[in-house]
């Protein structure tokens, strides 16, 4: 805008100066021409007077021939009697010259025209004398142009001065015009005191500002809402542009990719994650394909979903490690259940078929019937354990309860296993002080019974099982210590898995289902307790269940 105003002002001033220059030149030329004509007429009058006063007019004319004027004396018939610049004998008849005709007719005549004799433009003034001749005086217009031409350098100098003044004036006017516009407060357009002509524009800017503020406020609210959503997401969310530059990345994505110390915004995806398969998946999403892939990354199974978006793509990252582990355990559980059910059923079917077909000897029938009974008992125990686990998985077991004494429940659990322990000469004992916790008595009893049953089954004949109740670090606990076979250190992390057995052959001998410790773990979790194991191979094991400190208000008597 400043350049346009400056250029327009300069152009206007220069054109005005040029017009003034041309007008002044023309005015001066016209003035000089008028002066020349009036001077010619005056000189013609003087020459006429001199001729009338002299007895020899031609002698007077000859004396004046050295002047800048051309003097011609013409007879009535048009014959040239005298000419100061040419040989009158060689000149044409001048009777048809306009100024001569006019002079013979009215006494005087004048005309500006091209001279036929000299070939130059001249101003002619003719006047009739008393002897009926015409005295014509002519002056050259070229002399007028010569005078005017001498003035041109002055006019050019004046023009240059005017142009320089125009430049200064244009610059000054441009600053004066533009300065109020540069000082406009566009944040508060209606508070500006400036040109009335731009008031409608300022009003429009004000309305646009208000609209922009409302829109920006809405966008800010949406951004904060979106940020709150993405920040609370367990899944990682990465927004990329068409060049795979990170536009947005939530904290979960950084955590899942192991880059919590990085701010990846405005950086390439490779800075955030160097996995080639992630970059390839992002490019597929940029191509408009909805892509999904699951791979291991830093020991975790990550599922990445790529979706195309306008001018970019979105990556959604989920940690499916636990899901895959659960799926693996489910498949293993299904396979183990099938195997565990098939084994006793096969045994029952085989012995029953021997008895049915009469192939069993009479002395073996009782033994076969006893085996069938044992397998049925084992099968029922397995089904009961599976149902217990199923109820615990579904949360169908009530966990609410009241004050329960750990020592009392431990005595009850031990009393239930006394007969089984005595058959193998195993000593059962309970020691410690009574500890009151808030729990479901039936679940607590099942937990301790399973631990004690496990300790008896995997103990040595003549061994011992000791149940200890006490408090450690302010928290109640119950521990079951046996003198059995122990658990290898590399297998202790898996003993709570379903159907996992340390000694598979011994487990079948004692009728174990492989679900006891899995049930114990789920019961402990349902009761809000923690379970740990300390075992030495060949020296026995100690299982400890540590409970939360009971709240007096939350724990009411049952």
TrEMBL record:
What top-level class of enzyme does the UniProt entry assign? transferase
Q: What SMART domains would the database entry show?
A: HATPase_c, HisKA, PAS
Tell me the InterPro entries matching this sequence: BphY/WalK/GraS-like, HATPase_C_sf, HATPase_dom, His_kinase_dom, HisK_dim/P_dom, HisK_dim/P_sf, PAS, PAS-like_dom_sf
For this protein, the Enzyme Commission number is 2.7.13.3
Any one GO molecular-function label of the UniProt entry: phosphoprotein phosphatase activity
Reaction it catalyzes: ATP + protein L-histidine = ADP + protein N-phospho-L-histidine
Task: Output one GO BP term.
Answer: cellular response to phosphate starvation
Q: Where is the signal peptide?
A: 1-19
Which superkingdom heads the taxonomic lineage of this protein's source?
Bacteria
Q: Which UniProt keywords apply?
A: Coiled coil, Kinase, Membrane, Phosphoprotein, Signal, Transferase, Transmembrane, Transmembrane helix, Two-component regulatory system
**Regions that span the bilayer:** 152-170
Database matches in Gene3D superfamilies: 1.10.287.130, Histidine kinase-like ATPase, C-terminal domain, PAS domain
Please state where this protein is localized.
Membrane
The Histidine kinase domain is annotated at: 336-551
Q: Name one GO cellular component term.
A: plasma membrane
Name the record gives this protein: histidine kinase
